[in-house]
Automatic annotation (TrEMBL):
This is HTH araC/xylS-type domain-containing protein. Residues 223-300 form the HTH araC/xylS-type domain. SUPFAM superfamilies: Homeodomain-like. The keyword Transcription regulation applies. It comes from Acinetobacter qingfengensis. The lineage of its organism: Bacteria, Pseudomonadati, Pseudomonadota, Gammaproteobacteria, Moraxellales. GO terms for molecular function: DNA-binding transcription factor activity; sequence-specific DNA binding.
Length: 300
């Protein structure tokens, strides 16, 4: 691990001091890892950070009991991006007087010393994201041509804003991001190398020449499908109903959903319901109440 990238772990740990009522740091046997869980009084989920030397990877999946604003100051000069995969995030940067409303899926590019920022998170909404920070030298390593895409131009342009939002990443970026998000937390050196490789591949997709990062036609329907399930998981949901509501035939819906999320519709819906069930049980609901509120007619 090089000294340059370790600044991100240090900055992350400093930021945790400002959100100790939200995130609880878990012990780690590796200095390359920072693993946190959400305080039970706030919600359930996790946030972790992996320092690989060349890049720093962050991941988060969570659901909050009530709306929450998380504020912290970024004191390091960074090149980075965040891919919001599910949920709605509101980011405010006081230094730049910038406000971004991030409705997933979307990408936020960032560069420079961003100073004090706050992020507003809604309640009872499944949220997930991937972040990558990297050294400027790595950026130049990726540049092999004068024909640069918009993301590379953003990082190279001294006059570009320090935060910029790009909507609707394509299916390859969504797929790779979901793959990283769904990989288990690890501190094993071999598994860390595998996770680093996946993160570098994602960064390569974003920075490569002539990369079209924008939306493909079916992605709008898939995002509508995800939104329906996120909001209506407590009701009976069938694939024929979903297909009719989002304007796809059943075969295309199932195929594209698996391609974009790396999960089947059934697995995605089951995960939503189980996460909400855990949330309800931790807060004193009976099994009968949990079954009713997660879309099951009975407890059997």
């Amino acid at each position: 691990m090089t000294s340059e990238i370790s600044k991100y772990i240090v900055a992350h740990r400093q930021a945790l001091n400002h959100v100790s009522d939200v995130l609880v740091s878990r012990s780690s046997s590796s200095p390359k890892c920072q693993i946190n869980t959400f305080h039970p009084s706030v919600g359930n989920g996790y946030s972790d950070l992996y320092d690989f030397g060349r890049i720093c990877l962050g991941r988060g999946q969570f659901c909050l009991k009530k709306p929450k604003q998380i504020s912290a100051e970024t004191t390091v000069y960074c090149f980075g991006l965040t891919i919001f995969l599910s949920g709605t995030f509101q980011i405010k940067n006081n230094n730049l007087n910038q406000l971004l409303i991030c409705k997933s899926p979307t990408i936020v590019l960032r560069k420079g010393c961003l100073g004090f920022q706050s992020i507003n998170l809604p309640q009872n909404q499944q949220m997930s994201l991937i972040s990558i920070d990297f050294d400027q030298n790595l950026l130049h390593d990726f540049i092999q041509s004068k024909h640069l895409n918009n993301i590379v131009r953003f990082f190279l342009d001294q006059n570009a804003p320090c935060l910029q939002q790009i909507d609707s990443p394509n299916s390859r970026i969504i797929y790779q991001s979901q793959y990283i998000l769904n990989s288990p937390s690890t501190q094993n050196e071999i598994e860390l190398l595998h996770l680093e490789g996946a993160a570098l591949e994602l960064l390569g997709l974003l920075l490569q020449e002539n990369n079209n990062i924008y939306n493909e036609p079916h992605l709008v329907s898939i995002e509508k499908t995800i939104s329906i399930m996120d909001k209506e998981f407590d009701q009976k949901i069938t694939i024929p109903q979903l297909a009719k509501r989002v304007g796809l035939n059943e075969c295309d819906l199932k195929r594209c959903f698996k391609q974009y999320t790396n999960k089947t519709i059934g697995n995605y819906l089951l995960t939503l319901r189980m996460q909400h069930a855990m949330f309800l049980l931790k807060n004193g609901s009976t099994i009968q109440e949990v079954a009713y509120k997660t879309g099951y007619n009975n407890v059997h």
